[in-house]
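To close the section, here is one more complete example, presented without commentary so you can practise reading it yourself. The ligand is magnesium ion.
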Amino acid sequence: SPHKLAEPDLLNLFIDIRKALKCPEVDLEDIACYYFDGQGKVIRPIITVLMARALNQHVSQHHRLLRNQLEIAKVTEMIHTASLLHDDVLDMADIRRGKPSVTLRFGQRKSVMAGDYILAVASTLLARINNPQVTIVLAQVLADLVQGEFMQLGSKENENERFSHYLDKTFKKTASLIAHSCQAVGILGGADEQLQQVCFQYGRNVGIAFQLVDDVLDFVASANSMGKPASVDLKLGIATAPVLFACEKFPELNAMILRRFSEPGDVTFAFECVHRSDGLQQTKLLARKHCLEAIRVLDALAHSQEKMALIAITDKVLNRIR
Ligand code: 2DE
Ligand code: MG
Ligand code: MG
Ligand code: MG
Ligand code: MG
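Output:
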């Protein structure tokens, strides 16, 4: 399985991250380390490591994972975790990975600062890689995360622009990190521009599929199964793909999207519409299309076990329940 194949490379991932986060301010260190407890899915580091190995097979005679490529796996998990510390403040989410979120346990201010601290340490690890192109690529991720989060605060007035706005936002808030992490290991492995694009497009498509599934799970899964709050997107005023698809059958939703489901009954009504339309199936179908595209771009890579694992990951992304 993809997990088993990447495991030997990732054995020390959390130990190394926790080591990097050590600091004299013990509370800060503890809070920053709170999610580096081995309970996460580690999907980003797994993809990063598998991409590095699949790619190296193609461009070098050595076929081994380069030390710097493993640093990217660390940096990517740290950026992801920092974004969760901030995300749970913005979303007022009190559980994450089945335990009290940092913001619930330690308060909003400490959650924001610990997120900042993780980013600060991650930027040191990134700088030590000493490759300007890699730094630029991952700095772009930070800008994308904030832009994506900002885009989510408003809705497009024009109904025709709404879906492309949603996809653009989805790339920025979720897919950019995976896409650019894949590109970064490509750069470090010596991939030319064309091969870097293969890495990037695989990550972009898997990342978009991942968030599409996240947005479906928000409607169908329980908080218990996901380890984080369920049915929250509408309450936060966010119209995700299932709602946008449901608009075709229930045009009344358009007004509610614009007012961000702020009037009494809006959330319940929209929830019903999603379940009475084919919005969830259409969203899953779109996720499947992105996974097929991710598999297609891998055609450019030489055969390897790791490439097969990258293909298998698309199934895990589509069928995940948490
Ligand atoms: C997760 O979406 C969103 C991730 C991006 C968060 C980015 C922020 C900008 P969800 P879940 C907060 C600042 C962060 C930086 C620069 C690190 O759907 O369902 O809310 O897991 O995720 O809560
Ligand atoms: Mg959230
Ligand atoms: Mg959020
Ligand atoms: Mg979500
Ligand atoms: Mg998530």
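Once you have examined the tokens, check your reading against these statements. The chain has a mean pLDDT of 95. Strands lie at 95-96, 99-100.
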